[in-house]
Structures are given as structure tokens and as C-alpha cells.
Amino acid sequence: MITSIRTVAAPAEGAATGGAAGDDPRRLAVRSLEGAFSQLFTQLRRVYAQAAEAVSPGMMPGTFKVFTVIERMGSVTVSTLAERMDSDKSLISRSVSELEGLGLIERTADPSDGRIRLISITALGRSRLESVRYPYMDRLGDVLDEWPVEQIDRLTVLLQALASGDVPEA
pTM (2 decimals)? Predict the structure, then answer.
């Protein structure tokens, strides 16, 4: 479950706790951010595992992630999917085969080049994904319910900048 994160992470074990390096506000802020991300990632892993299990008992969270990326991207090739997810093509291929076997996605010939197979979500896949996604979307909505829209937009911009390595605008 996604909950608010209001703790400040303690310095890593063995890290300098005194002196200039330990008191550096930027360093402390980055460590606090690392702690917040650690909590958030733990919660997200739990959510993905629960959602994967709800879509198909025994589905691994990584396969569920591939499934959601296919849904977001639309028709896509395995190569493009692997590149987008920064993952090994063989791992993506295994997930795609599992999803296809479950009837959640389908592979069709690319109309412009019949040698290329496009992967897309099926009606069954869309239905299953929607049935598990909305309860989790509500959780995020609940956590952000008191946040002003401008703050949500700002968080989105900051996370996108962090993901891309860009410096956010002030």
C-alpha cells in the first residue's frame, strides 16, 4: 500500500557522522531522498507482486511490469520493449511468451514488414489489467488527495527530470 513517507533516513552504517562531510546539508538531503526512495520501491514491489498475482496466479512481478509497459506503449516489438525497459531481450521474450500463453497479449505481423511481429494487449488483457489497476490507482489518489494539483504536477516534473538526468527548472 502506498503511504506517505515522513521519515528522514539515518546515515548509512559506517558513514561519517561528524565533521564537514557528515554535516553537509546536500549529502544529508540526498541520503534522506535515498531512504524515501527505498521505502517507496519496497511498497511498489509489494503492489506489483499483488497485482501480478491477481492477474494470473504465479505471475512474476517482472512479467506484470512487461505487461503494463506493452499496454502503455501500444503495439511494440520485443526489441523496442527490451530497449525501453533497459532489459535483456531474452528476458522480455520469456515474459511475452508467458503473457501470450495466458491470452493477455497477442503477436501480429507488422503491416509494413511481415517479418516483424508486433505485440499488443488483448481485450482479455485489458480487462484483467483494469481490474487490478484501479484499486492501486485509488491508493495513490488517496495519498495525494490533500495535495494541491500544482504540487502533484511539480512532483511529476521533478521525477521526470530525475529519471532523465536533467536539471529541473526552478
Answer: 0.69
